[in-house]
Amino acid sequence: MEATAHERNHYGLLFQNLRLEQGLSIDDMANIILVPASFLQAVEEGQECLSSADLNMAANVFGVSKDALERGQKEPATRREDLQTLLGELIGVCKNLQECNEELRKELSTIRGELDLSDKHVEEPVVNHSDVEEESYDAVQFDITVSKPLTR
């Protein structure tokens, strides 16, 4: 059994409050998101739901998160600067992982030389990203498999 619009619309009153904070009439807002004013009135009363695209457009007008708006919560939209900062941090983590992987390759090469093993008997280090904890980017796992007995 499908939920009624009223059961799905958790944002009607918040939508109305945000619209009024922006100083927009119901007709102005309806023109912005291209829906009839009567439909928008029903949305604010919780009787109808906006499409995802209309919610996204309204969230942009209000400067709030679309997902939060849909849940009936007021959260500021993620700013471009914040996204750029997060992207920079992610790039830094990736570079750190690459450096760790390179260090592991060097260590493995040293171990191969000391044990006099050929490449066919030792696997390359594997960085398992699912094992890297969120808080610690230094946690890297690698496996060495030797297919012949080690003798000195």
Plain-language structure description:
It is a single chain. The chain has about 150 residues and is an all-alpha fold. It folds into two domains: about 5-70, Orthogonal Bundle (434 Repressor (Amino-terminal Domain)), CATH 1.10.260.40; about 90-150. The protein has helices at about 5-10, 10-20, 25-35, 35-45, 50-60, 65-70, 80-115. Helix 3 packs across helix 4 (about 35-45). The longest helix is centred in the middle third of the chain and has 36 residues, at about 80-115.
Summarize the structure.
This protein is an all-alpha fold. It has helices at 5-8, 12-21, 26-33, 37-44, 52-62, 66-71, 80-115. The chain starts with a helix and ends in a 37-residue tail after the last helix.
* Total count of domains: 2
Categorize the overall geometry: rod-shaped
Structural class: mainly alpha
* Cα-to-Cα separation, first versus last residue: 72 Å
- Taking pLDDT < 50 over at least 5 consecutive residues as the criterion, the unreliable ranges are 135-140, 146-152
Radius of gyration: 28 Å
Q: Tell me the name of the CATH class of the largest domain.
A: Mainly Alpha
What is the chain-wise order of helices and strands? HHHHHHH
Question: What's the average pLDDT?
Answer: 78
> CATH superfamily name of the largest domain?
lambda repressor-like DNA-binding domains
Number of strands: 0
Q: What is the share of helical residues?
A: 40-55%
Strand content: under 5%
* CATH topology tier name of the largest domain: 434 Repressor (Amino-terminal Domain)
* CATH architecture annotation of the largest domain: Orthogonal Bundle
Tell me the major beta sheet: none
Question: How many alpha or pi helices?
Answer: 7
